[in-house]
Amino acid sequence: MPTKTRTVTLGTPLTLPCGITVPNRIAKSAMSEQLGNVDGSPSQTLTRLYSAWGRGGTGLLITGNVMVDRRAYVEPRNVTLEDDRHLEAFTNWARAGARQGSVMVMQINHPGRVAVGPLYRRPVGPSALRPQVPGYNLRKPRELSLDDIADLRRRYTCAAELAVAAGFSGVQVHAAHGYLLSQFLNPLANTRTDSYGGDPQNRRRLLLEIVAAVRAAIGPNALLSVKLNSSDFQRGGLSVDESIDVALALEEAGIDLLEVSGGNYEAPAMTGVVTDRTRAREAYFHDYVDRLRLRSTMPIMLTGGIRTADFMSEALADGSVDVIGLARPFAVRPDIAAQLLAGDLEPVTLPSAPTLPNLPGIAPVNSYLQLAWHAQNFRAIADGANSVRGPGAARTLLAAAANVTVHALTQP
């Protein structure tokens, strides 16, 4: 644990290795918005939502995952970026978030074997192994071929280049939460015997190839971030030690910001449903960043369970963390960054998202229920609400079911 204190507060600007300066240390981490149009373009509602968050004083705005392939969606109504046909809408989205000085970064992603849609398509993964999650285990994924992997590199690179062309300051490559790149890192999901599996170096090969290709495409002056699991919170999954090795390889590859999270659909630690029982502090993954900081100087963003200004100040002052990532608080208070910066909010309090009774196998369902609850709140914030308490469990489930049904019926 670093012990040297420094004069860094929530309001201190941060200049990243690429040269971009984030005006303060508060970031809105990515959440599932489900506010894309049928054609995959960002909707006006989504644009208004980011305008509200930008007005709220956030230093860094990271979008919800934008799909690199319309043949694979994480959730209904994901935004998709494959070509320049909707570039004007993406430009409007980028401008809306950055209008008050926030740095806008697009998170790019592929769901792999946990794709929700299109329902008629077979999902893909590093290996032909079903995830052990109710619903997601109904379809056996197809193992990606080497040609498929080459196409994936091209898609991530294309999406990143288009994002920067549209006015985003950069991109975040999503390699956490059990999505495709996270699946490649996970020995339980990746049992390949070629150059993309079999040992830790091979399992991280695709991520590092994509990071290198994206950096070459967007240049040295655009922001390149990666979101990485501290661990998968599964016996036999990505371990803390292996994750640290991945993080150090990413630092060597020249990323500008590493966001630390954890968990996946089978063990959703990122939502607080599953946590490290040895954790003594409020942040879910702070012990990991303490260990990583002993070996790394790259900028680190910590997300997950952070709720008090005292903790935020301590983590920034001791040097273990450079950016404080908040997600769910932004689903109830769009101006929460301004309140924290003014010292008017202590601690961050949230209305409880609805949950179902704690029965065996219910954790992934409750994790999705939280995402659906937040998605309902986003619409209210986009319509001008300054504080949202969110619907109950029944309304949340009905709205989520309606979204899935409409998405299935209208999927191109």
Automatic annotation (TrEMBL):
<dbReference type="GO" id="GO:0016491">
    <property type="term" value="F:oxidoreductase activity"/>
</dbReference>
<keyword id="KW-0285">Flavoprotein</keyword>
<dbReference type="GO" id="GO:0010181">
    <property type="term" value="F:FMN binding"/>
</dbReference>
<dbReference type="InterPro" id="IPR013785">
    <property type="entry name" value="Aldolase_TIM"/>
</dbReference>
<dbReference type="Pfam" id="PF00724">
    <property type="entry name" value="Oxidored_FMN"/>
</dbReference>
<keyword id="KW-0560">Oxidoreductase</keyword>
<dbReference type="InterPro" id="IPR051799">
    <property type="entry name" value="NADH_flavin_oxidoreductase"/>
</dbReference>
<feature type="domain" description="NADH:flavin oxidoreductase/NADH oxidase N-terminal">
    <location>
        <begin position="12"/>
        <end position="340"/>
    </location>
</feature>
<protein>
    <submittedName>
        <fullName>NADH:flavin oxidoreductase/NADH oxidase family protein</fullName>
    </submittedName>
</protein>
<dbReference type="InterPro" id="IPR001155">
    <property type="entry name" value="OxRdtase_FMN_N"/>
</dbReference>
